[in-house]
Amino acid sequence: MDARWPGCVKDxxxxxxxxxxxRFQQGMIxxxxxxxxxxxxxxxxxxxxxxxxxxxxxxxxxxxAKTRFRIEMTFASLKARFSCLHALRVSKIIAACAVLHNIxxxxxxxxxxxxxxxxxxxxxxxxxxxxxxxxxxAITQTFFS
Length: 145
What we know:
Elements: H1 11-16, H2 19-25, E1 33-34, E2 45-46, H3 55-81, H4 91-106, H5 130-144
Parallel strand pairs: 1-2
Helix pairs in contact: 3-5
């Protein structure tokens, strides 16, 4: 989330204009991001196979969904425990909340109740990049065949 954008703007639209995306494209940041179908598959941004017919594609999609779910649960847990994160977008404070969350998790404190909202909106501008599809296919073949 970015405070410069109104709440009705889709996160994939914000990402498309972000400095983070530019840095990945320029090779300044290495690694992979995980996205849902609303995002365009890029060499640095893995999205599900759109119509998986092969078993490796299905396994890739399941693994991607499970991993994204754990990440979203972590963010939801942080937001539930530290309500200031709903409106605040300051990275040092978010990092401090993550550290505090880890401490209370180690101490086995009761976690707040959380619910996740589904990502039902698909961005019509999300056109998969051929290099992204090739990277996704290589990962699928290497790890899920």
